[in-house]
Design a protein that fits this description.
MetI-like fold, single chain, 284 residues, mainly alpha, globular, two-stranded antiparallel sheet
Length: 284
C-alpha cells in the first residue's frame, strides 16, 4: 500500500510549476518584446513586461519586410520560413523513407556481410556533420547543388539513428506474421507496405517529430551551402538581423523568433500522442 503524503505532492507540484515558469517566462518575454517598438525595447530599463500595441505592425514588417526605423530595408521573413519548412519536411521524410528501407533490407534479406553492413551504418553515429563537412561540401559544390533545396537537404537525409531504431522494431515482429504473409502470397514489398508500415506508424510519427525539429534548426550546413538570400532558412535570417548592424530592430528579431518557433511547436503539439507512444511502446 502506498502511503499518501500531501506535503510531498505539494513539493512535486511546486517543482513542476517552477519548471514551467522557467521555460515559459523567456518565451513570454520574447512575445512581449515583439509587440513593442525597437525604441521602447532599447530605451526601457528594464523593459516593460506588459504587451505593447504594435503587434500587427511588427509582425507585418517581419513577414513582408520593408523599411525600419533606421531607414534601412529589412528582408521579408516569409520566404525564409518557406525554405525552412520545405527543407525540414524533405529531411524528415527522406530520413524516414531511407531508414525504413535500410532496416527492412538488413532484417529480412539474407546477403553476405549483412552484419558488417549494419555496423558500418551504425558507426557513422560517431561522425557528425561537422567532421565530414568539408568533403560533403566539395561533393555538393561539384554537383552544382549550392543554393538549392537539394543541397540543403540531401546531404542530411541519411540517418543511422533511425535505421537502428527501425531495425530494432522489425526484429520484434513475430516470425509467424512473416510466415503468414508468405503463405498468403505476399512478396517482400507487399509485406513491407501492408504489414510493416502500419505496425511502424507510431515509430514513424516519433521519428518524424525528431527529424523535423532537427531539419528546422539547421544552421551550420545552410550557412555553407547558401550564398543567396532567396535560399536562407529562418535561422540564418534571424542571425542576419542581429549581425553587423549599428541599430538592431529587436522587436523584429523577437517576432522572427516567435514565428520560427511556431512550426516545430505545432508539430510537437499535434503529434504529441503519437510521439510518446512511439518512444515508449514496445509491444504491438
Amino acid at each position: 500500500m502506498v502511503e499518501r503524503r500531501p506535503w510531498l505532492n505539494l513539493i512535486s507540484h511546486l517543482t513542476l510549476w517552477l519548471g514551467v515558469l522557467a521555460v515559459a517566462f523567456p518565451i513570454y518575454l520574447t512575445w512581449v518584446a515583439s509587440t513593442q517598438t525597437a525604441q521602447q525595447i532599447n530605451q526601457g530599463n528594464p523593459m516593460s513586461l506588459w504587451p505593447g500595441d504594435h503587434f500587427i505592425e511588427t509582425y507585418t514588417l517581419t513577414l513582408l519586410g520593408g523599411g525600419n526605423s533606421a531607414g534601412s530595408q529589412l528582408a521579408p521573413m516569409w520566404p525564409m520560413l518557406q525554405v525552412s519548412l520545405i527543407t525540414a519536411l524533405t529531411i524528415s521524410v527522406g530520413k524516414i523513407a531511407i531508414s525504413l528501407l535500410s532496416a527492412f533490407a538488413i532484417v529480412y534479406f539474407r546477403f553476405p556481410f549483412r552484419g558488417l553492413v549494419f555496423w558500418m551504418i551504425f558507426i557513422t553515429l560517431m561522425l557528425p556533420v561537422e567532421v565530414r563537412i568539408s568533403p560533403t561540401y566539395e561533393v555538393v559544390a561539384n554537383l552544382g547543388l549550392l543554393n538549392s533545396y537539394a543541397g540543403l537537404s540531401v546531404p542530411l537525409i541519411a540517418s543511422a539513428t533511425a535505421t537502428f531504431l527501425f531495425r530494432q522494431f522489425f526484429m520484434t515482429v513475430p516470425d509467424e506474421l512473416v510466415e503468414a504473409a508468405r503463405i498468403d502470397g505476399a512478396g517482400p514489398l507487399r509485406f513491407f507496405r501492408d504489414v510493416l508500415l502500419p505496425l511502424s506508424a507510431t515509430n514513424i510519427a516519433a521519428m518524424f517529430v525528431i527529424q523535423f525539429i532537427y531539419g528546422w534548426n539547421q544552421y551550420l550546413w545552410p550557412l555553407l551551402v547558401t550564398t543567396s538570400e532567396d535560399m536562407y532558412p529562418v535561422v540564418l535570417g534571424i542571425r542576419r538581423l542581429i549581425a553587423g548592424e549599428s541599430w538592431t530592430e529587436w522587436n523584429v528579431v523577437m517576432a522572427s523568433v516567435m514565428l520560427a518557433m511556431l512550426p516545430p511547436a505545432l508539430v510537437v503539439i499535434l503529434m504529441q500522442k503519437w510521439f510518446v507512444k512511439g518512444l515508449i511502446e514496445t509491444e504491438k
